[in-house]
């Protein structure tokens, strides 16, 4: 053999051996990277996400809603609920699922996510499933649990805030106003009254709501906050909310509710006296005119109006339809100074429409009122008197009186006092120098007498009042003491003779004997008669003004002089002429 041939043959053998070894190494590497699935004896669960809270875990017999992705061990997807945009809804433990899934889902919580690996003997076995799942396939399911409920479930209520005072709770046939957030069991928001900025208003317990809500709202207090969880058969059931599709079929519902208002169509107003005066001589009746302050709020305490903020009372007739019906009722039978709370159902207030932004429709209203005063248009001056032992000379029209007073409103608010200035108030009765009610109240008094006068506004300062001092339509209270009395002249007279009139009256006045009396001669003569006690001027008036008026009346032709032909005594005047 040729050496070279031997050498050539050995070289080719070594090349073939090297190629075979490379191919063997590649096959080993390929098998190591893609190993065949290992056989499983049972399900395998990998928990990929566990929520912080787990209020309920799946039990056999529960109904569940979940999303899933079905894959083979190599990651190839064969099915997904996400692709159908709907959860998979099924009872667990009733053989409605493959055995491995029936077993694997037990113990899951809402919002928990598991990777579940199921061997073929607990899946579709040797037969597989159609064209999608070959025989003897190990199946992987990426599962997200969204809902759990049971046919034995009832409405679940969890109260997380309750007001300290709860005088009334929701009963069947009550009408309520409440805010809510509605979510699915996994927390997905499907509706909220807060986003609409309007309460949900409805009757309770008579079928206006889904059955679970009808149950879950019973027993609530105004201001209470509770979470109401409903199984679907007490919610929207198999069909969900239909075309809206916000609530899927067979979904548990969670409502976070705060109750704002509560009444019954049969309700009347409720009145709670908060403060009563020690003395109440009179209570309000239909037809009275009242001045009162108020704070108005909704039943949950939301403020909507106040007379205090305007710094002015609310003034109105009561029982005549000038105010809402409930207030008309609530203001009857009150005392001046009383404070009371009046709760008015909407059918006696602003009804289903409300007033717009401040008072919503069907709202119960709460008024805290303080009665400042009231009167009736038929009222006269009310007089309470304390007389001295000797009380013989009584005041009458035309008398000049001096008196002290303290003046207040009916609620005690100070108006004024003569004591502040240390001098009396001096008036002529019947001359219009004080309000009508005061003139009436001062008639018939004697010096030293004390009176309390309650004067209704139509005999005082009326609807307008006195700016900055006396409110409009205010009843006034005067504590009066008569200090001095000067008897007035007969009505119609501003000057009278205390004795017989001299027959030479004109000539006595005519000092310069020019057959006429000028203003100075007239004034000097009258003042001299008063000084000597022969005559009297009407008290309480400016003497010079009285004399000027007397002179003007005597000067018939208005030439500034009085002749003897013009001069007449009042007793000689015709009845139609009234000399001042």
From TrEMBL:
Indicate the secretion signal residues.
Answer: 1-33
Q: What residue stretches are annotated with the EF-hand domain?
A: 497-532, 542-577
Pfam families, per the entry: FKBP_C
The Enzyme Commission number assigned here is 5.2.1.8
GO cellular component, alphabetical, reads: endoplasmic reticulum
Instruction: Respond yes or no to whether keyword Glycoprotein is given for this record.
Output: yes
Cellular localization per UniProt: Endoplasmic reticulum
Q: Could you cite one Gene Ontology molecular function of this protein?
A: calcium ion binding
**Which ranges carry the PPIase FKBP-type domain?**
61-149, 173-263, 287-375, 398-486
Protein name as it appears in the record: peptidylprolyl isomerase
Native source species:
Sinocyclocheilus rhinocerous
């Amino acid at each position: 053999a040729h050496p070279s041939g031997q050498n050539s043959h050995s070289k080719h053998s070594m090349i073939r051996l090297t190629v075979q070894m490379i191919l063997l190494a590649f096959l080993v590497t390929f098998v190591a990277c893609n190993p065949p699935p290992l056989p499983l004896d049972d399900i395998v669960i990998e928990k990929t996400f566990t929520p912080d809270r787990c209020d309920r875990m799946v039990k056999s017999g529960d109904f569940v809603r979940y999303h899933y992705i079905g894959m083979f061990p190599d990651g190839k997807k064969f099915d997904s609920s996400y692709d159908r945009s709907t959860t998979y809804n099924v009872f667990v433990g009733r053989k409605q699922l493959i055995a491995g899934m029936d077993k694997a889902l037990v113990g899951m919580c809402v919002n928990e996510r598991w990777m579940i690996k199921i061997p073929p003997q607990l899946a579709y076995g040797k037969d597989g499933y159609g064209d999608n799942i070959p025989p003897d396939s190990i199946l992987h399911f990426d599962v997200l649990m969204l809902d759990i409920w049971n046919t034995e479930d009832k409405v679940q209520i969890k109260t997380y805030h309750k007001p300290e005072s709860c005088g009334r709770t929701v009963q069947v046939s009550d009408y309520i106003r409440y805010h809510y957030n509605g979510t699915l069991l996994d927390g997905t928001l499907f509706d909220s009254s807060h986003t609409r900025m309007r309460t949900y208003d409805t009757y309770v317990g008579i079928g206006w709501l889904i059955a679970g809500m009808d149950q879950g709202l019973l027993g609530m207090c105004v201001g209470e906050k509770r979470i109401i969880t409903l199984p679907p058969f007490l919610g929207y059931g198999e069909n969900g909310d239909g075309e809206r599709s916000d609530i899927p079929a067979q979904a548990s519902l969670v409502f976070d509710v705060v109750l704002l208002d509560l009444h019954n169509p049969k309700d009347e107003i409720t009145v709670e006296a908060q403060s009563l005066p020690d003395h109440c001589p009179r209570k309000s009746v239909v037809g009275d005119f009242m001045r009162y302050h108020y704070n108005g709020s909704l039943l949950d305490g939301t403020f909507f109006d106040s007379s205090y903020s305007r710094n002015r009372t609310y003034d109105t007739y009561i029982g005549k339809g000038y105010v809402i019906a409930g207030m008309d009722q609530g203001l009857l039978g009150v005392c001046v100074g009383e404070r009371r709370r009046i709760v008015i159902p909407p059918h006696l207030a602003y009804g289903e429409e409300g007033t717009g932004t401040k008072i919503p429709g069907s709202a119960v209203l709460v008024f805290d009122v303080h009665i400042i005063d009231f009167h009736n248009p038929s009222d006269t001056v009310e007089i309470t008197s304390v007389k001295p032992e000797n009380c013989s000379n009584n005041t009458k029209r035309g008398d000049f009186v001096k008196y002290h007073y303290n003046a207040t409103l009916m609620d005690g608010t100070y108006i004024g006092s003569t004591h502040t200035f240390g001098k009396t108030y001096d008036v002529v009765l019947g001359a219009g120098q004080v309000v009508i009610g005061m003139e009436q109240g001062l008639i018939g008094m004697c010096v030293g007498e004390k009176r309390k006068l309650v004067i209704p506004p139509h005999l005082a300062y009326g609807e307008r009042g006195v700016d900055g001092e006396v409110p409009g339509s205010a009843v006034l209270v005067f504590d009066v003491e008569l200090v001095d009395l000067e008897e007035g002249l007969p009505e119609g007279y501003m000057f009278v003779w205390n004795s017989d009139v001299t027959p030479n009256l004109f000539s006595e006045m005519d000092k310069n004997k020019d057959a006429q009396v000028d203003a100075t001669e007239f004034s000097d003569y009258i003042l001299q008669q008063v000084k000597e006690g022969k005559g009297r001027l009407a008290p309480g008036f400016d003497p010079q003004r009285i004399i000027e008026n007397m002179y003007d009346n005597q000067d018939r032709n208005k030439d500034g002089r009085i002749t003897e032909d013009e001069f007449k005594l009042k007793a000689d005047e015709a009845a139609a002429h009234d000399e001042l």
